[in-house]
Design goal:
Elements: E1 2-10, H1 16-33, E2 38-43, E3 56-62, H2 65-73, H3 75-84, E4 88-97
Antiparallel strand pairs: 1-3, 1-4, 2-3
Helix pairs in contact: 1-3
Length: 103
Amino acid sequence: MLHHIVLFRFHDHIDAAAIAAVEADFAALVAATGVVRDFCHGPDISVEGLAQGYSHAWLLQFAGPAERDVYLVHPAHQQFVASVQPLLAAALVFDFADAAPAV
């Protein structure tokens, strides 16, 4: 299993309606690409104060790197990236695979 974490820091002037539209558009990628095994998202609710301005997170899970690679070049994903970039002050993407169990 490959886990794909995406964090967004929106520009200060981006309103709640625009963020809600981004959330809906991101969720639509699950069906459009056909390779996402599981998907969840939400706003930062941490009390630690370590989010560094990132306000929203998405976790996508793929069977493995090959499925993630299909997702990355899929036209729906490319269109989403192009549409969301003007709204973002920063984005962070981090992938990791399940570790092998200790023997």
